[in-house]
Amino acid sequence: MDSAAKDEMQPTLPPGSSCPWPEWPEQERAEQLARGAALKWASGIFYRPEQLARLSQYRSREMQRTYSLEARLKSVVQSYLEGVQTGVWQLARALEAVQGTREALSQAQELLQNLAQASKTLQPLRERVAQHKQLQALSQLLPRLQAVPAAVAHTQSLIDAQRLLEAYVSLRELEQLQEETWGPLGGLELPVFQGLGLLAEALGQAVEAAAGAAGQLAREDPALLVAAVRVAEVEARRTTSLGQAPRDWRQRCLQALQTGLERVHFGKTVLPEPGCLAGWLEALQVALPAELAIAEALVAPCCPPHYNIVQLWAHTLHSGLRRSLQQLLTGPELGAADAFALLHWALHIYLGEEMMGNAELGPEADVSQLEPLLTLENIEQLETTFVAKVQASVAQWLQKALDGEVAEWGREQEPNTDSSGFYHSPMPAIVLQILAENIRVTSVVSESLQQRVHSMALSELGTFLRSFSDALIHFSRDHLRGEGLAPHYVPYLLASLNHQSALSSSLSVLLPDGVASGILAPVEAALDELQRRISRLVLEELQVELQPLFAGLPSRRWLSSSELLDRVCEQTSRFCQDFWRVRKPAAQLLLAEAERTVVLQYLHALMQGRLVCRGADERTQAAQRLLHDAAQLKELFLGLGLEESVHCTPVLLALRELLNLRDPTLLGLEVAGLRQQFPDVSEDHISALLDLRGDVSREQRQAALSSLQAGPPPSPSTGRRVLFSLVPAPAPSLSSCLPSGPCS
Fold it and tell me: What share of the chain is helix, strand, coil (3-state, %, to 5)?
């Protein structure tokens, strides 16, 4: 641009103005700040008078600085104004160019509108041309199109005849003809091709049906199976056109293989009825390995390798079996036999060498890494069901065994005996056999089931023992009231002791391997309590028989004759004559308790105050009678087989010394010695014995009783048996009590 044109574009400024725009407020504020700063600087510089001499120098320097700044500002403003003038000129030229372009576009738009109107007049001609092209194509394809209905019927007949490969070739020819007509007709669908979709679906269903019967076809018609698989594979590799959805016949074929296999072995109609599960599982145990063998030998050669037929068969059979078992478990609750059979089969047989773990099947048939047939919840459900059912059955059988035993107690005959002469009954063996067999059988399933059944067995055995004890108590009450006819009451009680001993000695058969014997402690305690209960019932009967005989002891007749004790010994001997039929150690314990019962009855009779010795002669006679009676009782129980070390008759000898003492003033020493031997002797017992002497004054009695309290404590001795604390003594008179005694 020349300088003349440039000057022509520059705006003219009014005279006297230095800027075409008004002043900025920021500029005024800046000037005010500058003036304030200058005044502040000047006041600081010229504050002292000696600085005023250089005022002219400062003024000259500041004027020079001001002129320099003004020159620089003018240069910058001039440069800015020149740039603005150039931009305004360029914008004017651009505006002229835009206006020219707008006029050209308007003319082009008018031309296009004229062309569109002309194109509309040609549309009928264009449509007529397209129709002529379609008619030309149809005229060329007409002979082939006329043969389509016959080809469709022929293809359908091939499908019906299960000639699948030929049917597929014919179908593809028809589809190719349809594709050839698609383009020339502009996507027009001819009515003659409407049946091809149904024809293709019919062929697909035929392929599915053949795959679903693969096991049977592999044995009877493998060519048909091979044809079906080949059709599915060829179709899978074909590329579709004409916007058709792909026919996934390979996937349908694989699905049909699985569905058909499951239908054969796990159809709804073949689920077992209640109680038939074991037979169904046994049939599967034979059928599934055979099916896998057929798959490997016959089906796999008919299919491509990537089908992995053996693995597919194994996984399909596993999933079908698992689904059937889940369906079975959601139905009615299984019985004990079915639950046990299913647990044992699923946990041990199925994956074992007899079935899926058979080495002949190969690694492809391995299903151990798949989901287990039974989940943990299923196993818990089956174990709970089995234990509940078995518990109900065991309780019923044990009750039957107990009812049979109780029915024997009223017989006219004595209890049965074994070859050794001991009372015997099959009940203990039946009880233990029932419980042990259930524990043993569950060991082949799982440790958890065995623990559950073991706990159940011990619980049921405890319940049985309580029922047995209750039955004995009822039996005893009826006998004592005379309501029940029990000709052999005591022998059947003794037989019950043998039952207890048999159960106790054979209790270890209920203990599984590796389980601590401490788990049997509650049952052992129940058996011990049962033994004590039976012994008490026997001894109560002995006590009932002896009480009338001891009613005449002590007496003058007792002092002069041994007739009373002879009758006691005779009755006791007759009562204990069958004790030998009780097995040891229960027999020894029972004899010991019987001997103690006789001695306790003897002591109780002495304490009743029926006799008071009139003099030294009667005291001597009483002492001699105690000596004789102790020897007679000792001889009796030694003859019955009781060991001498457990006899209680020595207490009679100790009482003999108390009666035989000549000097009453020495009674304190004798009483202290008696307490050393029998710590449970009380003041009441001593008072009753002193009353029997008949020669003890009040002061001597008090001295003797004082020695009982003041004497040294009894020396510890193991094996002491309780005697005096079991003998109720009559309440003493006030004259025989100590001031600090129990009656004070």
Answer: 75, 0, 25
Q: What is the pLDDT of residue 597?
A: 92
| Distance between CA atoms of residues 671 and 654, nearest Å | 10
Mean pLDDT of the chain: 82
**Sole residue written with tokens 């044809």:** 227
713 upstream amide cis, omega within 30 of 0? no
b/e string for 708-736 if b means 16 or more Cβ within 10 A?
beebeeeeeeeeeeebbeebebeebeeeb
On whether the CB atoms of residues 639 and 688 are closer than 8 A, the answer is no
pLDDT at 7 over 50: no
Distance from chain centroid for Cα 541: 52
Q: How many residues does the chain have?
A: 744
Sign of CA dihedral 94, 99, 100, 106: positive
Whether residue 292 contacts residue 314, with contact meaning beta carbons closer than 8 Å, is answered with yes
CA distance 461 to 467: 10
φ, ψ at 423 (rounded to 5°)? -60, 135
CA proximity to 570, closest of 596, 598, 533, 534? 598
**Sequence-separated (6 or more) residues with CB below 8 Å from residue 37:** none
The dihedrals phi and psi of 10, each to the nearest 5 degrees, come to -75, 135
Task: Specify the pLDDT at position 271.
Answer: 66
Q: How distant, in Å, are the alpha carbons of 343, 394, 457, 472, 685 from that of 451? A: 15, 16, 10, 31, 55
- Summarize pLDDT for 431-454 with one digit per residue, the tens: 989 998 988 998 888 888 988 999
Q: Which of 210-219, 459-468, 678-687, 714-723 has the lowest mean pLDDT?
A: 714-723
507 touches 446 (CB < 8 A): no
The predicted model gives 358-368 an average pLDDT of 76
- At 95, list the tokens: 């505006």
Residue whose structure tokens are 């707008």:
102
Instruction: Give the pLDDT confidence score for residue 392 in this predicted structure.
Output: 93
Question: What does each C-alpha distance from 190 to 134, 177, 179, 402, 530 come to in angstroms?
Answer: 12, 11, 11, 91, 99
Q: Report the alpha-carbon distance of residue 310 to residue 317 in Å, rounded.
A: 11
Q: Tell me the pLDDT tens digit for each residue of 574-594.
A: 988 888 888 888 888 999 999
pLDDT digits (tens, 9 = 90+) for 367-392: 878 888 899 999 999 999 999 999 99
Q: Angle, to 10 degrees, between the axis of helix 427-442 and the axis of helix 447-480?
A: 160
Q: Angle 586-606/563-575 helices, nearest 10 degrees?
A: 150
**Angle at CA 179, nearest 5°, toward 177 and 182?**
115
Give the Å distances, CA to CA, from 187 to 152, 178, 181, 242. Answer: 21, 10, 8, 8
Residue bearing tokens 């009822």: 474
DSSP state of 346: I
Work out the pLDDT band at 136, boundaries 50, 70, 90.
low
* Amino acid found at 383: E
Residue type for 394, please? V
User: What pLDDT is attached to residue 137?
Assistant: 60
Specify the higher pLDDT residue, 466 or 14.
466
**Threshold 0.70, pTM exceeds:** no
Residue 387 token pair: 């234990």
At residue 661, does pLDDT exceed 90?
no
Does residue 91 sit in helix, strand or coil?
Answer: helix
**pLDDT given at position 6:** 43
**Structural tokens at position 420:** 């050794």
How far is Cα 561 from Cα 649, in angstroms, rounded to an integer? 19
**Is 80 exceeded by the pLDDT of residue 599?**
yes
Q: Which residues pair with 417 in a beta bridge?
A: 423
How many CB atoms are closer than 10 A to CB 41?
A: 11
